[in-house]
Write a structure and sequence with these properties.
It is a single chain. This protein is an alpha+beta fold. The chain is built from 13 helices and 11 strands. Strands 3-4-9-6-8-7 form a 6-stranded mixed β-barrel. α1 packs across α11, α3 runs antiparallel to α8 and α9 packs parallel to α12. The protein is elongated. InterPro entries: ABC3_permease_C (IPR003838), MacB_PCD (IPR025857), Macrolide_Exporter_MacB (IPR050250). It is found in: Cell membrane. Belongs to the ABC-4 integral membrane protein family.
Amino acid sequence: MRTTDLIRISSRQVLRQYRKNIGVIVTIILGTAGFIIMITMGRSIEENISHDLEIIGNATRIRILFKHIPTLDPRTDKREFKQNSIDGIKAIPGVDQVSSIVTRNDFVKISHLDTIGYFQMLGVDESFWKVHGSSTQAGILFSEKDLQQRRPVCILGQRTAHEIFNHLDPIDQFITINNTPFKVIGVLDAMSMPDKARTIFLPITTAQDRINSISPVNKLYIRCYSWDDIEDTINKIPLVVKKYQPNDEIEIFLPEELLARIKAISFGVKIFVQLALIATFVLGGIGIWNIMMMAVRSRTREIGLKKAIGAEDHDILFQFLAESLMLSIGATFIGFMLGWTGVTFTASILHNSPPKNLFWLSTGIGFSFSLILGIVAGLAPAIKASRMEVVTALRYE
């Protein structure tokens, strides 16, 4: 049988029976589309999910302090991170944000009208909010201008705002901190740093300028781009600090348990998706095998007639194998189109352009896999059909 005749007959047979095969076709289409999307956009999706988990759990946040010296009173400890050290840490390839902090060892007195309270105070820079993934419930966060101009503004933790203002709107109201007036420009969201709910935040430059007994910059918070950058970053930080401050030793604190948990979640999601795609292809293969076995049974007399008029075993074998391949490749081709639509949609959500080289790579892999799937699933039914005896096939009812 000529190849063109084989393709024509097989295509006609598949199209004639497409309603019976719709379940298997849809399974292969969805499996192929999912494979295309995961190969093409998998890295971007993984990075996006990982970034969200990191922000929520602060798993890539590193805290740096000077090493504790038992004989040194914290109130008289004048050690501080020099600007050269901070700039050097910022230049480490895996570092996304670096935040400097100043504090007071005791509470500050805050008053508004007749209300007085004592709260923790932190002087922070504009990177502090990005490092901690913080947002406001009302108002805004500090801007670079607030720091440059040393503006007398502040942001309140949620409990601080409630205790000072009760149910009144604190935004644009003035409070007094140790007899110095400050304008409230924001209130932190309840989910942002719950351990800092009774805290008032000032621009670090303003705190250094206007608050008495303020500490030097003795604490840094660092956020890495991803957890893959953490190990390299924590190895380089001591070298950078040692270069500019050879007499100071530091301690690095990392939420290792949280990081391990988030890594496990991300890995579990990846494995689940991959297993789901594999299961989809396996089910598609089983479906093709089942369809072809039923086709052999229902067309037994047809096989007998073809053999009776001169068809060879290999003609029957190739016909059923071609039908299996047509079914697999046809569904895969539709899956390619659906997959490209999914890739384009996913890229628009993630605000990046789809990597076409990965799309064509995944298309090539998917096409190769569909060929293998069609051959493997259709081989046994095709062999069974080709080995039928003419007399037995013609007598089949």
